[in-house]
Every structure is written in C-alpha cells, then in structure tokens.
Design a protein that fits this description.
The chain is an alpha/beta fold. Helix content is about 40%, strand content about 20%. It has a five-stranded parallel beta sheet with strand order 4-7-3-8-9, with helices on one face. Strands 1-2-10 form a three-stranded antiparallel beta sheet. Helix 8 packs antiparallel against helix 9. The protein binds adenosine-5'-diphosphate (ADP) and the ligand O=c1ccn([C@@H]2O[C@H](COP(=O)(O)O)[C@@H](O)[C@H]2O)c(=O)[nH]1. Ligand LLZGTKA7 binds next to loops. The site of the ligand O=c1ccn([C@@H]2O[C@H](COP(=O)(O)O)[C@@H](O)[C@H]2O)c(=O)[nH]1 has 11 residues, from loops.
C-alpha cells in the first residue's frame, strides 16, 4: 500500500492540487512588547488568509482575576509580570485547540481590568494566530507554537502607540499610561519579553506595515500551505515543468491503482488523459 491515504488530491480541469488535511491547527505565535503591533499583525494575516479557517487567540484573555484589594489600587498592579497570567490555563487551552477542539474564551475588558462578562471568542480552525507579550515565556508554551514571530519595534514608538490606543480604547489617561509604562511596562519588557526574542523563528520589524514580511509569512511553504491563491498547486498545467508533470502523472497513476471507486476513478482518468494530452502537445511528443 502506498502512503497516499494521508493525502488528498483534488483534480480539476486545469491543475492537480494536493490538499493537506491538517491533523491539528497550525499555530502562528506573535510575540513582542505592548504596542508593537502584535494584534494588528494578526489581523492583517487573518485578512489575507481567506481560504482558511483562522482564529485569533490572545494571551490577554488569560489574566488572573484581580482580588478586591488589587482592584481598589490598580495603579500599583503589575500586569507586565508573567505571574499576572494564568499560564497553566493558557497551556491547557492551547493543548485543547491543538487537538482540534473549539474553545470559547471570555475576552479581556481593559477598561475594568477583568475578564469580559459580555464578549467571548471561539477559537478553532486550520490556523490560529496566537498573540501576547509572554507567549514565548515557558518551554511548554513555545513547544505548542509552530512558528514563532517576534514583532520588534522601538520603545518610544510602542509607548506613543500605547498612549494613543489606551486613551481611545482602554479607558486610560495619558498620565496613568506614562506612570504605568515606567513602573511596570518597560521593566517587564526588559526583564521578560525582550529575552524571549531569541526564540523567534522570524523577527518582524515595523509590525503590520511590513507588507513584504507579512506576505512571506502567509506564504510559508510546505508545512503551512496557506494562501489565498492556489499555492498548494504542485503541478500547474499551463506552466508546467517536466518534473512536475511527471510527478503529477505518477501521483494520479498511484491514486488510480489504489482507488476502487469507479466515479472518482473516471474523473482521475479524465484528468490523467488531459494532462497527458497537454503535456504531449506542449512538448511535441
Ligand atoms: N504599523 C503601524 N503603524 C501605526 N500604528 C500602528 C501600527 N501597528 C499598530 N498600530 C497601532 O498601534 C496601536 C497598538 O497596536 P496593537 O496591534 O494593539 O499592538 P499590540 O497588540 O502589540 O499591543 C493600535 O492603536 C494600532 O492601531
Ligand atoms: O488590566 C490590564 C491588563 C493588561 N494591561 C496591559 O496590557 C498590556 C498587554 O497587552 P497588549 O495588547 O500587548 O498591549 C501589558 O503591557 C499590560 O500593561 C493593562 O494595562 N491593564
């Protein structure tokens, strides 16, 4: 028996396409300091992966619930220490997602410094964009991520963006943002986030405005096979190479021999003949 049953081939008029049926979602981990553009990078990738089921998973949804006394004095609370997060629950959740489960999480309410009671996100799909400042912090987490991206943006730009974002979206004022930044955010970045840059497979400079890097990222070949064009096509008849046509013919032949289903077999035969005909015409055989 050939090893082909783990692969699925789609035969159409113009091309032969291999469809990889993922055993578990592909996890793209996007790490970086607060305000580096992690969420924006994830949104850009999600926008472009139109032919895949894609979800976002944010580390922010795993902040521990604050005790009453901490809630009364939030300006003294350090959200930039990894201990502020329930990393065990995060690992457990990611393991479930990796096994193909759909997991629903409450989002995080930054205005009230607690998990949202009204907004939820269901995470499932072929590709999961997983973002957060501490997602490379433990080996357990890193091992669950298929490709690790670190968004590298200067401190001053990150602070500027954070001021603009948090005054508009997170119910903060400029003074509290600057105080929090120098007391917790910057030390947290220097002590815990920047040291995990070394685990990245890709360093993404300039974040979501780096279109070239984002395009490369969505087209990471082989393992991912994700793209909104037919990049999965390994043999395109209109632009064939000798090797790719021979390979396609071999694949079709093996499929044909292994296939007992008459309808499918005739479809394969049809395409086999068409490929053969096209190949012979173009190659003047
Ligand atoms: N390349 C960019 N240029 C300008 N502003 C950006 C860029 N990327 C993100 N932003 C803005 O900066 C703020 C922080 O971005 P965000 O994606 O939320 O960062 P992170 O998730 O890393 O904290 C947001 O208001 C966002 O719109
Ligand atoms: O209640 C909270 C929880 C977190 N923060 C800050 O959020 C950032 C991490 O989120 P990004 O989306 O990466 O910016 C972290 O630096 C915390 O300081 C908060 O202010 N309040």
């Amino acid at each position: 028996m050939s090893s082909l049953p783990t692969r699925k081939y789609i035969f159409t008029e113009d091309f032969v396409q291999e469809e990889k049926v993922p055993e578990s979602p592909y996890i793209i981990g996007v790490c970086g300091g607060s305000g580096s553009g992690k969420t924006s990078v994830c949104r850009e990738i999600i926008k472009q992966l139109t032919n895949k089921r894609v979800s976002l998973l944010s580390q922010d949804w795993f902040y521990k619930k604050l005790k009453e006394k901490d809630l009364e004095n939030v300006s003294e609370y350090d959200w930039d220490h990894p201990d502020a997060l329930d990393l065990d629950l995060l690992v457990e959740t990611l393991q479930k997602i990796k096994k193909g489960a759909a997991v629903t999480c409450p989002k995080y309410d930054f205005c009230n410094n607690q998990p949202s009671t009204t907004e939820y996100a269901t995470v499932e799909g072929d590709v999961i964009l997983f973002e957060g400042i501490h997602i490379f912090h433990t080996e357990e987490l890193r091992d669950l991520i298929d490709i690790k991206v670190f968004v590298d943006v200067d401190n001053d730009i990150r602070l500027g963006r954070r001021i603009l974002r948090d005054t508009k979206e997170r119910g903060r004022n400029v003074e509290s943002i600057i105080n929090q930044y120098f007391k917790f955010v910057k030390p947290g970045y220097d002590n815990f986030v920047a040291p995990t840059r070394k685990y990245a497979d890709i360093i993404l400079l300039r974040g979501s405005s780096n279109k070239i890097a984002i395009n490369l990222l969505i087209n990471i070949p082989g393992e991912m096979e994700i793209s909104n064009q037919n990049k999965q096509v390994f043999c395109y008849i209109g632009n064939k190479t000798l090797e790719s046509v021979i390979f396609a013919l071999q694949m079709i032949k093996i499929n044909e021999n292994n296939n007992n289903n008459n309808n499918k077999s005739s479809l394969i035969n049809l395409n086999y003949m068409k490929i053969k005909e096209l190949f012979c015409q173009r190659s003047h055989i």
